[in-house]
Specification:
By secondary structure, the protein is α/β, with parallel strands linked by helices. It folds into two domains: 120 residues, NAD(P)-binding Rossmann-like Domain (Rossmann fold), CATH 3.40.50; 196 residues, Dihydrodipicolinate Reductase, domain 2 (2-Layer Sandwich), CATH 3.30.360. It is built from nine helices and 15 strands. The strands form two sheets. The chain has a nine-stranded mixed β-sheet with strand order 14-13-12-11-7-10-9-8-15. A six-stranded parallel β-sheet has the order 3-2-1-4-5-6, with helices on both faces. Helix 1 packs across helix 8 and helix 7 crosses helix 9. It starts with a strand and ends with a strand. The chain binds NADP nicotinamide-adenine-dinucleotide phosphate. NADP nicotinamide-adenine-dinucleotide phosphate binds next to helix 1. The site of NADP nicotinamide-adenine-dinucleotide phosphate has 22 residues, from helix 1.
Length: 329
C-alpha cells in the first residue's frame, strides 16, 4: 500500500487543528472523507479543510471502499466500539489516546483487529518526535548512569469546561485519561512496567479527576512521580534521573512542541550539554509511520503498549478511590 486512503471519524477539534493538516502533508496519505453525526457539520468541515467527501454517519464512512484507514478522534468512551466496528469493516485504525478505558477493553480491541487482519495503533504522536526518540535512546545508553527516577508532568487549563468531553465521566473524561496518559507512557517507556501505583486526586463538580498526583514503584530502586491537570496552567516537562546525571525535556512543551525547534539538556556533574532538534510535525511523522506499517514496515508503537498504559492508569484510578497503593498485576 503506497498511499493510504484515510477517513476521519468525527469533526473533532484535534482532527481539525493537527491530524487533518498532517494527513494533507504526509507523503503516503490521501484524505478521502470525513464523517460527523451531523451531515452539515461534516460538509462544512470538508469544505473548509478541502476533504473530497462528507458523510452524516460514521457507518457511512466505514461503507466507503476508498477508505482504507480511519483516524478515530472520538471521546475516549467510544474508542472501543468504533475501533471494533472499523475493524469489522476491514479498515485499519489509528485511534486517539487513551486507546480504551481499561486494559480489558484494549485487549478486546487488539484481538478484534487481529481477527480482521487490520492494523491498530494508539495516536501517541509525541513518541514520533525525534526529541522523544533521542531522550529514550540517551536514557537507555547509560550516559546518565542507571535510571532510578522519572518525573513527568502535563497540566493545562480547559478554557470552557462546560460541554467539554474532558469533564464528562460518561465519556471517559478526567485528567489522568486525558493527559496523565502521556506521563504514564513516558515513565513506562523509560522504566518498563511498574509494580505498584499510588495516587491522590482533586475531583471536580462533574465527578472527574481535575488534578491528580501519582507515584509509581517499579522495584526497590526505581520510582516515577507524575502529575496532570485540566485546570492548571500549561506545564509539560519531564526529567529522567540516573545515578550519573539527568536528562531534562523542558517546559512548557515536552509533549506538544508544535513545529518549532526544540532541545533537551543532559547534565553530568558540572558538565551540561544541550541537544537541539529542528522543527518538525510529530503528527505528520506519526501518520507517515502508520502508512509505512501498512506497507509492511514494523509498527514502532504496537497496541499491546496501550494495554500496559491502561493497566497503570487503571491502578492509579483505583488508588484514588481506595486512598491506598494498588499493586499492578
Ligand atoms: N493527540 C493529541 O494531541 C490529542 C489532543 C487532544 C485530544 N486528543 C484525543 O482526541 C479525542 C478527541 O478530543 P477532542 O479534544 O478533539 O474532542 P472534541 O473536539 O470534543 O471532538 C470529539 C468528537 O467526537 C464526536 N462525538 C461522538 N459522540 C460524541 C459525544 N457523545 N459527545 C461529544 N462528541 C462526540 C464529535 O464529532 P461529530 O459530532 O462531528 O460526530 C466530536 O467533534 C480524545 O480521545 C482525546 O483524548 C488527542
Amino acid at each position: 500500500m503506497d498511499t493510504v486512503g484515510w477517513g476521519v471519524m468525527g469533526a473533532a477539534r484535534i482532527a481539525e487543528i493537527a491530524v487533518i493538516p498532517a494527513l494533507r502533508q504526509a507523503r503516503n496519505a490521501r484524505l478521502v472523507a470525513i464523517a460527523s453525526r451531523a451531515l452539515p457539520r461534516a460538509q462544512e468541515a470538508a469544505r473548509r479543510l478541502g476533504i473530497p467527501k462528507a458523510y452524516g454517519s460514521y457507518e457511512a464512512l466505514l461503507d466507503d471502499p476508498e477508505v482504507q484507514a480511519v483516524y478515530i478522534p472520538l471521546p475516549n468512551a467510544l474508542h472501543r466500539e468504533w475501533t471494533l466496528r472499523s475493524a469489522a469493516a476491514g479498515k485499519h485504525v489509528l485511534c486517539e489516546k487513551p486507546l480504551a478505558l481499561s486494559a480489558e477493553d484494549c485487549e478486546a480491541m487488539i484481538s478484534g483487529c487481529r481477527r480482521q487482519g487490520v492494523t491498530l495503533m494508539e495516536a501517541f504522536m509525541y513518541r514520533f518526535h525525534p526529541r522523544t526518540e533521542r531522550a529514550l535512546q540517551i536514557a537507555a545508553s547509560g550516559e546518565i548512569g542507571e535510571v532510578r527516577l522519572v518525573r513527568a508532568e502535563f497540566t493545562f487549563a480547559v478554557r470552557t469546561p462546560r460541554g467539554n468531553i474532558r469533564f464528562d465521566p460518561a465519556l471517559g473524561g478526567g485528567a489522568l485519561f486525558d493527559v496523565g496518559c502521556y506521563a504514564v507512557n513516558l515513565c513506562r517507556a523509560v522504566l518498563g512496567e511498574p509494580r505498584e501505583a499510588l495516587a491522590f486526586a482533586c475531583t471536580g463538580p462533574t465527578g472527574v479527576d481535575e488534578v491528580t498526583g501519582g507515584l509509581l514503584r517499579f522495584d526497590d530502586r526505581r520510582l516515577a512521580v507524575l502529575d496532570c491537570a485540566l485546570t492548571l496552567p500549561r506545564r509539560q516537562e519531564y526529567e529522567i534521573v540516573g545515578t550519573e546525571g539527568t536528562l531534562r525535556v523542558p517546559a512548557p512543551d515536552a509533549f506538544l512542541p508544535g513545529t518549532a525547534d526544540t532541545e533537551l539538556r543532559v547534565t553530568r556533574a558540572a558538565d551540561s550539554r544541550i541537544v537541539r532538534f529542528s522543527g518538525t510535525d510529530q503528527y505528520q511523522r506519526m501518520v507517515e509511520h502508520f502508512g509505512d506499517a501498512l506497507a509492511g514496515r514494523p509498527l514502532a508503537l504496537p497496541p499491546e503498549d496501550a494495554v500496559g498504559n491502561l493497566r497503570v492508569l487503571g491502578a492509579l484510578h483505583a488508588s484514588v478511590r481506595r486512598g491506598a497503593p494498588v499493586s499492578i498485576a
